[in-house]
Design a protein that fits this description.
- It is a single chain.
- The protein is mostly helical.
- Among the domains are: 122-202, Recoverin, domain 1 (Orthogonal Bundle), CATH 1.10.238; 206-288, Orthogonal Bundle (Recoverin, domain 1), CATH 1.10.238; 304-375.
- The chain has 18 helices and 4 strands.
- It has a two-stranded antiparallel sheet.
- It is globular, with a radius of gyration of 37 Å.
- The model is unreliable at 20-97 (pLDDT under 50).
- Residues 42-58 have a biased composition (Basic and acidic residues).
- Residues 1-102 are annotated as: Disordered.
- Residues 205-240 form the EF-hand domain.
- One of its GO terms (molecular function) is calcium ion binding.
- This is EF-hand domain-containing protein.
Length: 376
């Protein structure tokens, strides 16, 4: 049996469709718009509404575009010009003027969640992030905090705190609570208060430790130590718990005698901060108790090596900020050693980022003060 010619059959069907369409057009009123639907044309499938069709709704839960490469932008390599242009085009996530208002009590302001739920206050969060503490550091500090909560009350008391750092409770050691504005008679320490005390004290440099002692015994906040305040400091710097009490006692006698602090004091008998720092540099052994306390705090928390690294980075940030002040905000070029180190670690870029943030905040505060003076 001979099969019909497919081409002739298709041509015949097309001619019949044209005839039907022509007859339909002639039957309509002249001037009206019409839509002709031919059976030969394939109808376009309209996607169903997921709200009306639950079956189709289940199928359409996934987004239309599943190409991960199309949804994620390709970031440029670090240090390239494209990265700088990209950074300039991105909107600012933080406003430096947010922290300008000195009237805000950041002890009561909630944190931004940089360390999840571990850090609750903005003041503590800014301290830790400004020093470059990582989430790993905060978790380790939290474990140490929980390990010394002997009664499982959720907070440690002062006795547990001093047991942890292996120090006696006396005015010199209790002065650490002033760093977190904690009263001496306050029984418990929250984790944020614990962080404020430990992190601030552990990252003190030697001059900052000496200044801390000066502020601690300047009871009247006059900016100078009188004879009674010097005598009280001399008495409390001596302790039987140290390994070399004889050396400390000798330094204390020098402090009280003509070759000690009196040699740096003027005729009025008052010792200001500059004279006190000069004495501390010449007789550092007299301040061994406070230096040993810092050593114990470091050993009981993150360890000496980690705290030394954090303190060194803190000094680098201060050096960069000082350079930016002298050069109108310009950042120095990376040295060869810094370029090499940045290949293996992000620490160099993290230090520079913190320095830029500190400098920007400083400029914002200065403009804020100038604006207030202009308004007055």
């Amino acid at each position: 049996m001979k099969l019909p010619n497919k081409q002739k059959q298709w041509s015949g069907e097309q001619s019949r469709e044209k005839t039907v369409a022509k007859n339909t057009t002639d039957a309509q009123t002249h001037g009206n718009k019409i839509h002709i639907a031919l059976e030969a044309v394939t109808e376009e499938k309209i996607p169903s509404d997921p709200a009306k069709d639950p079956i189709e709704g289940k199928k359409n839960k996934k987004p239309a575009s599943t190409d991960s490469k199309a949804s994620k932008p390709i970031l440029p390599k670090r240090g390239s010009n494209a990265e700088e242009k990209l950074a300039e085009s991105l909107p600012e996530t933080t406003d430096p003027t947010e922290n300008v208002n000195d009237n805000v009590d950041y002890r009561k302001v909630e944190s931004n969640g940089l360390y999840n739920i571990l850090v609750q206050t903005r003041r503590c969060e800014e301290l830790c992030s400004g020093l470059g503490l990582t989430m790993k550091d905060i978790r380790k500090l939290k474990r140490k905090y929980n390990d010394n909560d002997m009664y499982h009350s959720g907070e440690i008391n002062q006795a547990e705190f001093f047991f942890m750092i292996k120090e006696e409770q006396r005015p010199l050691t209790q002065g650490i609570f002033r760093l977190a504005d904690v009263a001496v008679n306050q029984k418990f320490l929250s984790f944020d208060e614990y962080l404020l005390c430990v992190v601030t004290f552990a990252t003190f440099t030697k001059p900052e430790l000496y200044e801390h002692v000066f502020d601690l015994y300047d009871a009247d906040q006059s900016g100078a130590l009188d004879e009674s305040e010097c005598a009280k400091m001399s008495l409390e710097l001596q302790s039987k718990q140290f390994n070399y009490p004889a050396n400390v006692a000798t330094a204390i006698r020098l402090l009280e005698g003509k070759d000690g602090l009196a040699a740096f004091a003027p005729d009025d008998g008052l010792v200001d901060l500059d004279q006190f720092m000069k004495f501390a540099r010449n007789f550092p052994v007299a301040f061994f108790p406070i230096i040993n306390m810092q050593k114990n705090i470091r050993a009981a928390t993150l360890g000496e090596s980690r705290w030394s690294r954090i303190t060194a980075n803190k000094l680098k940030v201060h050096e960069l900020v000082s350079y930016m002040r002298r050069h109108h905000g310009d950042v120095p070029d990376l040295s060869f050693c810094e370029i090499t180190a940045s290949i293996f670690s992000n620490e160099i870029f993290s230090i520079r980022k913190r320095a830029v943030e500190f400098y920007a905040l400083e400029i914002a505060r200065r403009r804020h003060v100038d604006a207030e003076v202009t308004e007055d």
